[in-house]
Amino acid sequence: MLKILRNGPVPRSKPLKQVRFGGDGSSPSQARVVVAGAGLLGNSVAYHLADNGWSNVVVLDQSKVGSGTSHFGSGTIGLFKPTPERNIVVESVKLYHKLQQQGHEIGLRRCGSLNLAQTHDRMIALQRRAAYILPTGMQCELVDSETVKKLHPFLHTEDLQGAVYVPDDCIADPAAVVQVLADEAKRMGVKYFEGCEVKYIKTKNGRVDAVETDVGTISCEYFVNCSGMWARELGLKCKPPVRIPAYPAQHYYALTPNIDLPTDDDNLLPCVRDYDSNLYVRQLDQSLLIGWFEKEAKPAFEETKDIPKEWQSHLHQDARHCAPLWEKAVDRLPVLRDMSMPTVRNSPDNFTPDGRLIFGESAEVKNYFVACGMNGNPLQGSGGVGKALAEWIISGKPTIDMLPFNVQRFLDLHNNRQYLQQRIREVVGRQYAILYPNQSEYKFSRKLRCSPLYSVLEARGAVFGTKMGYERALYFDADYRRGDPLPSLPEGSFYKPKFFHNMEKEYQACAQHVGIIDISSFSKIEIKPGVQSEMASGGNPVLNYLQKMCANDVNITVGHIVHTGMLNDRGGYENDCMLIRQSDDSYFMISPSSQQTRIYEWMSRNLPTDGSVMLNDVTSMYTVINVVGPKSTPLMSELSNSDVRLAPFTYKKLNIGYASDVMIMSFTHTGMPGYCLYVPSEYALHVYDRLMTVGRDYGARDVGTLTQRFLRIDKFIPFWGDELTSMTTPFEAGVFYSVRLDKKENFIGRQALERQKRDGLKKRLVLFHVEDIDIEKDVWPWGGEPLYRNSEFCGTVTSAGYGFASEKLVCLGYISRPESNAQLPITTEFIMDKDAVYHIDIAGKRFRLAQHIHPKAALACAIEREHRSKSYRPTVVKVKKQYQKTSRN
């Protein structure tokens, strides 16, 4: 029988000091930065700010330093992670080593780790990760079950396929780190106030102005919400409210009685992550600490309105929930069978809707920063997060790629408490699940944002995934018939997808007939004159604003469309979009689905202060239907009773069936011929019905977004978030046509691009065909795989898929020169050198690659086949000569 304990309150070394801000002068009434929460994250932020000379910092905690859940963590620090997370953990390790070397005893010890695989697919997942980690210089080794047994004699290993051993993983004492960071921050001038509850964040002109507490008010320039489980609720105590989607799940761990274990550094047992049993194990003195990331977790505090301050007394015992978890631990560690009854502790931790950290500047209030949602292990990320956030505050911009962690990746729906309570049931277990690329969808908190076509598409065999909470058809089950059970996504695979035959049929429709794709999730923003606009004066504030924001020349003819990026000062992307000019002073913007919050905030903060330009998010007002294929023009002409032959990148409004004012645009996001229909949502069902009814004569077929994704990759069209990020420029991505350095108006990022054009590129996006792979038997590339040029590491795959036109597996990836001559620019000649031999490492096996830097070259083999078969010929994008010259610099 298990004994379940609540975590008791943190013992106090001394009573809390009562303070009053702005009173007798002993407590500050003003600070440059106020941090709420004195746990690992809050103390790390304060430490890094002070370490950079910002000492006018105040840290507040409603209880005392470390009184939340930070110090209850496992104390494990794992480096065997996806690249964005690993970069954060590396900075944490550097900080903890520094503190230890300065004489602070934080229990930092190198013990290594074993990452176990019970199944073939788990072994592939570990091999894939090891392949892209090894080129970074981090040590990791694939080992067999016998080696696992030697490294950790207590483990049962007969059921293992193998493991990855990471010798540099380590452990530390979270409680000690919390206190040392606070002590060091205090030494550098940071002021701490315990027993001080933040009540409200006051704003002025859209930015932080002051922090109201139960003992007074502090004026400040910056506020940092590091309040852990309370971060979401504190975010609501502001006008406007700040969305911080994080919620605590109950997190269970057990501590065994003492075992006769060696405790010297040379003989510490390695940490164990048994992903397929959803458990981890580490040595803690002479005991074993065992914890779980179970497949279906339990939300904490469901019965309370808010997260209670005295949270320990609200944690319930649940032996039934823990019993099967303990049985898995016993199976892996047979020594537990002979032990007395273990003590299982329940300590909640904050989880986010997508299982990734949350930090950055809020979308709602300027200078309101957030750091929370550590998803079960606050120690390993806090050092890196604190450093990145402090650098952002000091420099005014991120110093690392923040896109995966940015708080602005969420919408209001993600901050709904009921949504979060359901979603985190699944998020906890996904920390250890195999997340098959493009094939691992959430099961909880679904069917929230739906296109008007959702039910119709479901009845036609659609299998759905989600993007920004939006249900999107991934593909359509060609074998589904009405009356059958609704199809669902099969178990994922690293090989050829089990639903690939459906995608082949969808491609044939797009290539030879008509494919119909619902892409309603795209973000849509209107840019129009504001109430203060003075067109009579001869100016055009909207045009002036967009010329400043956009790298391309957006002064296009009314009715035309331009593809452009919105850049930051480094020349990196803040947005990739299409702009449709609807009148002299109004534009309609289309952006990636995940950009709905982030780009609206970016554009809002750059609006003219005189109110002459306004933005309107109209994402939900339009249903977007992509009509793709060589027969799309005659189909649209018949539906509209007009000659629909638009010039490329133009648009007009048409009546389709009984529906009026449907915007028809002559692009498809796929590089294939066709049209995008922006349909007022009340007309969506009617327009779709007419498309499919009349479309029968044209071979129309439903197509999913996965097929669209593969079409884009095959046409060398980069993706937002994969190829296009705040750290990549249009020149590096090869989209030279989207930049006009010769336009008279200045734009954000222009100087950076001019320098890059003058000095040359350090990396360049390249398309690769995998030449010697068996698509039926070999593991496919899915993204993240390392690339080699003449056996030297040169880059990483960012996107991958199957090229239906080329009939090859296709990868996109940035390559750079090797470290030996990294100072030299990367040129076309270097990339295309006939003596250069490229390979890709897929789960430890290397395959030969053929490289291309232009769509025309990448599709040459497909065009050649088209001449033979007289089937559809893909559109080739022509690059202007002035930019071709730039690409050779």
TrEMBL record:
Boundaries of every Aminomethyltransferase C-terminal domain copy: 763-847
Positions of the GCVT N-terminal domain: 453-743
Matching InterPro entries: FAD-dep_OxRdtase, FAD/NAD-bd_sf, FAO_M, GcvT/YgfZ_C, GcvT_C, GCVT_N, TrmE/GcvT-like
Top-rank taxon: Eukaryota
Transmembrane regions listed in the UniProt entry: none
SUPFAM superfamilies: Aminomethyltransferase beta-barrel domain, FAD-linked reductases, C-terminal domain, FAD/NAD(P)-binding domain, Folate-binding domain
Gene Ontology, cellular component aspect: mitochondrial matrix
Domain FAD dependent oxidoreductase central: 396-451
Region spans: Disordered: 1-28
Domain FAD dependent oxidoreductase: 32-392
Protein family according to the UniProt entry: Belongs to the GcvT family.
UniProt-recorded name of the protein: AGAP002217-PA-like protein
Record organism: Anopheles sinensis
